[in-house]
Amino acid sequence: MTKIKRLFSFWEKLEKYTLFQLFVSFLKISPSSFGGGYALIPIIEKEAVQQRKWLSEREIADVFALAQSAPGAIALNSAIFIGYRMKGKLGALAALSGIILPTFLIMIVLSLLFLQVHDHPKVEAAFTAIRTTILALIVYAALKMGKQAIVNYAAMIICIAAVLALYFFSSWLHPIFIIVLGAIAGIAVCSRHSDELQQTKQEEKQQTAAQDDYSDYMI
Amino acid sequence: MMELLQLFITFFMIGLVSFGGGYAMIPLMQTEVVNRYQWLTLDQFTDVTAIAGMSPGPIAVNMAVSIGYMHKQLPGAVAATLGIIGPAFLCILVLAAFYKRMKNNRYWQGSMFGVRAAVTGFIVYSAIIFTKNNALFGANMWYTLSQLIIFGGSFIAIAYLKKHPVYVIAISGLVGIALYS
């Protein structure tokens, strides 16, 4: 009994350190992130704003905006940024390792299982159908992303050009260059039509406001 | 050791440009992992995509873990994961300082506009190669029809009925066992 008591008091002591709190909070959140980031936004918000009171409502909105404009998954980026705001680089590391650890382990176990059973005819049959469902998920992700990104003809042209370039030139043109070319094209378009950009930004805002049901699982 | 470093560097590069989520990164990963380094065969790669989509966590990171693991066991998984989250980590630390200024910078806005549009193209292309790699449709009439029904059903369940992807994948797996074994 005393051992258990000691363990509890040890836990309580640990719980007082913000670094540890960051780790535990994101560790708890992580497994509920099936399919990616957007589903996690309301959960992160609840934990960081209401439970732990680390940030205010307005600050968390800034966190999500920044998390979206950096490369990488929005949930990871939010965790890193919240950690960084609370406790600097160490905080960022603590939050990141919290959110990454469970999914990392789950993925290892699944890969291991898959390597063991992938020759089994039942598993093969299941995967024949699952691959098609994944295709449906990819198509849905494309539509979601397209809604946000394709705001005018210029964006549509960049998008179509990217598909064609990937399809026909992928043997010698590295996909990274296509992304870089997209960025350059974007700068060229926007410096010519800065009014248009303002307009698209407003539309974007309206759209994100309309998407507040957080049903987006993708990304 | 060299191979681990190569895993890290490759996924660091992918992490650097991973805008628009995991499915947008499929063409890039396939170029590097299957065509260039031949860490996995095309079939293995498609299966990894399916497993990554079934698991919690960001798809790109899941794929990195799985590809790293299949190539070099646990050390490989760690190297690939560190690689793919490294750029995001560094970028956030830098962006956190400059964000207020960046947000209204015209070049930044312009490049994000272009990158988002291009990345949408990447996801569309992912769908195309995923179909092609798997020969999802084709073989024979009955097979094509059943696949089209699974595709339509899955899409409706996810997009309109707002079902959780995990349920849809689980049900789809059972349907697959019933139909194809």
UniProtKB/TrEMBL annotation, chain A:
GO terms for cellular component: plasma membrane. The keyword Membrane applies. InterPro entries: CHR_Transporter (IPR052518), Chromate_transpt (IPR003370). The keyword Ligase does not apply. One of its GO terms (molecular function) is chromate transmembrane transporter activity. The chain crosses the membrane at residues 20-44, 64-84, 91-113, 125-143, 150-169, 175-191. It comes from the Bacteria. It is a multi-pass membrane protein. Keywords: Cell membrane, Membrane, Transmembrane, Transmembrane helix. It is found in: Cell membrane. Residues 200-219 are annotated as: Disordered. It holds the Pfam family Chromate_transp. Belongs to the chromate ion transporter (CHR) (TC 2.A.51) family. This is Chromate transporter. It comes from Paenibacillus montaniterrae.
From TrEMBL, chain B:
GO terms for cellular component: plasma membrane. Its main location: membrane. It is a multi-pass membrane protein. It is found in: Cell membrane. Pfam families: Chromate_transp. Keywords: Cell membrane, Membrane, Transmembrane, Transmembrane helix. One of its GO terms (molecular function) is chromate transmembrane transporter activity. It comes from the Bacteria. The chain crosses the membrane at residues 7-26, 77-99, 111-130, 142-161. Belongs to the chromate ion transporter (CHR) (TC 2.A.51) family. This is Chromate transporter. It comes from Paenibacillus montaniterrae. The lineage of its organism: Bacteria, Bacillati, Bacillota, Bacilli, Bacillales.
